């Protein structure tokens, strides 16, 4: 593996279904362990780029290579890319416990349910939300929502995070 080019974005392009070309040819690489920020005016294509890295959008050109492997035909759940959305993304129909467990129950590194629950309870205890396990996200205070989201991200235990 080339640690200097852990993530490589090569000539990435995105033309939306309405014909608007949001990304023309974006290329950059990220060294393993680096914290990188995409800076630019609103509408310049930051979210579009991150959505393609996470697999929520398909590029219309170019390639995304992580750890030497193209992600183009890899499903989002198998990419090992965590995505911290600008707004808290908790599933409203699931309880706090189910939300925290969820990342551990999907994808290629998924854990047995009882193990996932044990780990989820440990995270919830650390962030003092263990008593809210059966609540739905809509009933939580702001602080508890943030704690629940922190637990959910931690439980994903992924190596790569993008923040859109
Ligand atoms: N689904 C879409 N269809 C068409 N155009 C879109 C769509 N989503 C975003 N855009 C346009 O693509 C450009 C880049 O958007 P975006 O990636 O959200 O920018 P940023 O995150 O940098 O503010 C903007 O001009 C936006 O209006
Ligand atoms: Mg954006």
UniProtKB/TrEMBL annotation:
InterPro entries: ABC_SmlMolc_Importer, ABC_transporter-like_ATP-bd, P-loop_NTPase. Transmembrane segments: none annotated. It is an enzyme of class 3 (hydrolase). One of its GO terms (molecular function) is ATP binding. Keywords: ATP-binding, Hydrolase, Nucleotide-binding, Transport. Pfam families: ABC_tran. The keyword Ligase does not apply. PROSITE patterns: ABC_TRANSPORTER_2. SUPFAM superfamilies: P-loop containing nucleoside triphosphate hydrolases. The gene is ugpC-2. It comes from the Bacteria. The keyword Nucleotide-binding applies. This is ABC transporter, ATP-binding protein. Its EC number is 3.6.3.20.
């Amino acid at each position: 593996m080339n640690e200097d080019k852990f993530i490589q974005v090569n000539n990435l392009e995105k033309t939306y279904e309405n014909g608007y070309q949001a990304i023309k040819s974006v290329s950059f690489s990220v060294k393993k362990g680096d914290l990188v920020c995409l800076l630019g005016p609103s509408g310049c294509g930051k979210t579009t780029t991150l959505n393609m890295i996470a697999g929520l959008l398909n590029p219309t050109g170019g390639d995304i290579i992580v750890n030497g492997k193209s992600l183009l035909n890899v499903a989002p759940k198998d990419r090992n890319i965590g995505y911290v959305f600008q707004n808290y993304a908790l599933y409203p129909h699931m309880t706090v416990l189910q939300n925290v467990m969820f990342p551990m129950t999907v994808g290629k590194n998924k854990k047995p349910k009882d193990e996932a629950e044990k780990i989820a309870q440990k995270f919830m205890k650390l962030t003092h939300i263990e008593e809210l396990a059966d609540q739905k996200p809509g009933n939580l205070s702001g602080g508890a929502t943030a704690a629940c989201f922190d637990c959910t991200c931690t439980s994903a235990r992924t190596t790569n995070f993008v923040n859109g």
